[in-house]
C-alpha cells in the first residue's frame, strides 16, 4: 500500500476536529497554524485540564494534542486518565501526548493509559504530518470496527474484523489483537486463545503472550498463566500490564506474598500508576506488611491529588495503616507515624468535607491513634466530638468495624463485642463482612501481636502433628496470652488437652482446663466459622466428663 499523497493527507486532516491543550499561548497558536497548513479546519485550544475535560464532555473530538506539563495542577497524564475513565473519547479518537520531557517516569506513567502516540517538542509541519497522518489513515481504515465497539455491538465488530483482515494486511496486528480482545469480551475463550497461539507460532509478540495469560486465568489455569507471565516480565521488564496480570495469577494461586513482590517491582518501574499502588497497598495490608502498605497508601494519596481516582477511602486506609504501625510503640518513629496519621485524617476532613460520614470515620481512627500512643484523654475527646453520630444501627458497616476496633483499644471490650455481634446479625447475608467481624473478634490487637499469635498458632499445630503434646500446649497458651478470646486457638488447645487426657490415666484437671477454654467462647456468634466446631467439642467434652 502506497503512502497517502499530500492532497489525500490534507483531505483527511480537514475532515477531523482537533483539541490542542497547552498552558503556553504561543504554542497553542503555533499548533493551530501547523494544523491549518496540514489541512485542518475545526481546531479548538485550551490552556488547562479542566477546560480540556469540559470541552470533551460537550463536544466530539477526533484528535487531542495534549502537552504533558501544564503547570500547577493536572498534567497530560491526568487528562488522558480522566477522559478514558469518563469515556469521553471514542475508540476512533486519537490522543497524542506532546512533551519536551522524555524521562522514563513520565513515559511509563503516560503509557499506563495508552496514548496513541508521542510528539516531542519542538514540532514542525513535516513531523506532525508524518506522525499524525499515519495515525489518521489507520483511524479511517478501522473506523467501522471502532464504531461498533463503541456501541458494544461486539458480534458485529468481530464480523467486521474478519472481513477487513484480507483487505487491510497493513493493519493485521491491530486487527488480530482487537479480534482476540473481542472474543474475550464475549466469553469465547477458545477462539481468543487460538488467535494468540497462531500469532505466537509466527512471531513472539508481547501482547499475544499477555492475552494468552489472561485467557489462562479466565480458564482457571493459574499455574500455566503464572509461568507464561513470569517469562514475559523477565523478557520485557517495562511491560507493566504483565506485572498486574501476573500478580492476579499469583493471588488466584493462593500466593499473596509473591503477588505483592511482583507489584512492588512494578511500582519501581512505573511509579505514577495510582491504581497499581492501591492494589499493592491492599495486598500488603492483607499480608500484614504494614510498612509496605503505608508506603503504598501514601503514594496512592499523593498521586490522587489531581487524579480522577482520588478517594477518601485512600486517606482512611493510610490513617489506619499508620495507626497500626504506631500502636503500643513509644519510639520516635512510632510517634512520627501517629502524627502523620492525624495530619492525613485532618486533611481528608477538609478535602472531602461534603462527603457523608467523613468526620465520623476520621475521628474514630484519630481516637485509636491517640489510644495507641497512650493518650487516653485525647482518644476520648475525639469520640466525644462525634457522639451524636455514633449510632451502630445507622452507621456504615465499615465504620462499625472501625469503631469496634477503637473500642477494643480503649479497653471497652464488652461494648466492642456487643457492637460486632449486632453487626453480624444485621449483615448476616454478607460473608466478607462476617469474615472481618470474626477476625476482629478473634484478634482485637495490633498487627504485631497478630503476627506473633499467628506464628505461635502455626508452631503449636506443628508440635501437635509431630506428637509433641506438651510443647503444643505451651505454645498455644503463649498465643492465648496475646489473644485470649481467639476461637480457633482456644479450640486447638482443647483438642490437645483432650488428646493428653486420652493418652494418660484420665487426668480430670485436663478436662477442667478444656472447660475454661470453652467458657471463653460462650458468646461466640452462630455466624462464626468456628461455631460448629465449638458445639462439637463441647458435646465431646460433656461425654468425656460424664
UniProtKB/TrEMBL annotation:
Residue ranges constituting the Response regulatory domain according to the UniProt record: 17-136
InterPro entries in UniProt: CheY-like_superfamily (IPR011006), Sig_transdc_resp-reg_receiver (IPR001789), ST_Response_Regulator (IPR052048), TPR-like_helical_dom_sf (IPR011990), TPR_rpt (IPR019734)
Pfam families (alphabetical): Response_reg, TPR_19
Gene3D superfamilies for this protein: 3.40.50.2300, Tetratricopeptide repeat domain
CDD domains hit by this protein: REC_TPR (cd17589)
Single biological process term from Gene Ontology: phosphorelay signal transduction system
Keyword Phosphoprotein assigned: yes
Domain of life: Bacteria
Positions of TPR repeats: 453-486
Keyword set includes Phosphoprotein: yes
Protein's name according to its UniProt entry: CheY-like receiver protein
Amino acid at each position: 500500500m502506497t503512502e497517502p499523497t499530500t492532497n489525500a493527507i490534507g483531505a483527511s486532516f480537514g475532515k477531523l476536529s482537533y483539541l490542542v491543550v497547552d498552558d503556553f499561548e504561543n504554542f497553542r497558536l503555533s499548533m493551530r497554524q501547523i494544523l491549518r497548513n496540514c489541512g485542518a479546519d475545526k481546531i479548538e485550544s485550551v490552556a488547562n485540564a479542566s477546560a480540556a475535560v469540559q470541552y470533551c464532555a460537550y463536544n466530539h473530538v477526533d484528535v487531542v494534542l495534549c502537552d504533558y506539563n501544564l503547570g500547577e495542577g493536572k498534567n497530560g497524564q491526568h487528562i488522558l486518565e480522566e477522559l478514558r475513565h469518563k469515556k469521553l473519547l471514542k475508540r476512533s479518537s486519537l490522543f497524542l501526548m506532546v512533551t519536551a520531557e522524555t524521562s522514563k517516569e513520565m513515559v511509563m506513567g503516560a503509557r499506563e493509559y495508552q496514548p496513541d502516540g508521542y510528539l516531542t517538542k519542538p514540532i514542525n509541519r513535516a513531523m506532525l504530518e508524518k506522525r499524525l497522518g499515519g495515525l489518521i489513515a489507520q483511524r479511517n481504515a478501522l473506523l467501522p470496527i471502532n464504531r461498533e465497539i463503541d456501541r458494544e455491538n461486539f458480534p458485529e465488530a468481530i464480523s467486521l474484523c474478519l472481513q477487513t483482515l484480507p483487505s487491510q494486511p497493513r493493519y493485521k496486528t491491530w486487527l488480530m489483537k482487537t479480534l482476540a480482545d473481542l472474543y474475550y469480551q464475549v466469553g469465547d475463550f477458545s477462539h481468543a486463545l487460538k488467535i494468540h497461539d497462531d500469532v505466537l507460532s509466527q512471531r513472539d509478540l508481547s501482547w499475544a503472550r499477555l492475552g494468552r495469560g489472561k485467557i489462562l486465568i479466565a480458564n482457571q489455569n493459574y499455574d500455566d498463566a503464572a509461568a507464561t507471565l513470569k517469562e514475559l516480565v523477565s523478557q520485557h521488564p517495562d511491560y507493566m500490564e504483565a506485572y498486574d496480570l501476573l500478580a492476579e495469577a499469583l493471588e488466584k494461586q493462593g500466593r499473596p506474598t509473591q503477588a505483592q513482590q511482583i507489584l512492588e517491582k512494578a511500582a519501581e518501574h512505573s511509579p505514577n500508576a495510582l491504581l497499581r499502588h492501591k492494589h499493592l497497598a491492599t495486598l500488603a495490608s492483607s499480608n500484614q506488611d504494614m510498612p509496605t502498605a503505608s508506603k503504598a497508601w501514601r503514594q496512592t494519596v499523593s498521586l490522587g491529588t489531581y487524579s480522577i481516582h482520588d478517594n477518601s477511602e485512600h486517606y482512611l486506609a493510610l490513617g489506619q495503616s499508620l495507626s497500626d504501625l504506631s500502636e503500643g510503640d513509644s519510639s520516635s518513629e512510632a510517634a512520627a507515624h501517629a502524627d502523620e496519621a492525624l495530619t492525613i485524617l485532618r486533611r481528608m476532613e477538609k478535602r472531602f468535607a461534603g462527603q457523608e460520614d467523613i468526620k465520623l470515620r476520621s475521628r474514630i481512627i484519630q481516637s485509636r491513634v491517640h489510644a495507641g500512643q497512650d493518650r487516653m484523654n485525647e482518644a476520648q475527646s475525639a469520640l466525644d466530638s462525634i457522639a451524636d453520630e455514633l449510632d451502630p444501627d445507622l452507621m456504615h458497616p465499615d465504620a462499625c468495624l472501625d469503631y469496634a476496633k477503637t473500642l477494643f483499644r480503649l479497653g471497652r471490650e464488652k461494648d466492642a463485642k456487643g457492637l460486632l455481634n449486632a453487626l453480624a446479625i444485621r449483615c448476616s447475608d454478607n460473608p466478607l463482612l462476617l469474615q472481618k467481624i470474626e477476625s476482629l473478634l478473634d484478634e482485637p490487637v495490633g498487627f504485631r501481636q497478630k503476627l506473633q499469635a499467628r506464628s505461635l498458632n502455626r508452631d503449636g499445630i506443628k508440635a501437635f502433628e509431630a506428637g509433641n503434646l506438651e510443647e503444643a500446649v505451651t505454645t498455644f497458651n503463649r498465643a492465648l496470652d496475646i489473644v485470649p478470646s481467639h476461637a480457633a486457638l482456644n479450640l486447638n488447645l482443647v483438642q490437645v488437652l483432650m488428646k493428653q487426657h486420652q493418652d494418660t490415666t484420665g487426668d480430670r484437671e485436663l478436662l477442667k482446663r478444656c472447660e475454661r477454654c470453652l467458657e471463653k467462647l460462650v458468646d461466640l456468634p452462630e455466624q462464626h466459622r468456628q461455631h460448629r466446631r465449638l458445639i462439637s467439642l463441647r458435646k465431646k467434652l460433656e461425654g468425656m466428663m460424664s
